[in-house]
Amino acid sequence: MENYEPKIIAFLCKWCTYAGADLAGVSRLKFSPNAIPIRVMCSGRVDPSFILDAFSKGADGVLVGGCHPGDCHYAQGNYKTLRRVKLLKALIKEMGLEEERLRLEWISASEGNKFKEVVNDMTIKLKELGPSPLKKEE
Known about the structure:
This protein is an alpha/beta fold and 138 residues long. The chain is built from 4 helices and 4 strands; from the N terminus they run βαβαβαβα. The protein has a single domain, classed as Rossmann fold. The protein has a 4-stranded parallel beta sheet with strand order 2-1-3-4, sandwiched between helices.
């Protein structure tokens, strides 16, 4: 437990959050390497099964990042995501996971610093929670 490092699967909107993550990297901001980025065209394209699959395969946390409401390149994608994540939080709670293991953030392409803060904060909170109870012993 002392050397525990959480694994975060991060589904990031290509147009905003992924670009914000890229900005954080090229700006050489110091942030936790625990997030594994997966670029998607829109946060609205993140099927709930992707999130559940990530947890079932050992992710300690899942981050979904999208454009700010009203700024989605696909008009309504982030509103769909907001509704889905609310429902998924209730579902994962029923599965025995803490709601904090699933996080939704609106991060624009110009918010590299916010991306850094979100990843660092999520890493700290997951370390406090410990490994996912769904994680199989290796």
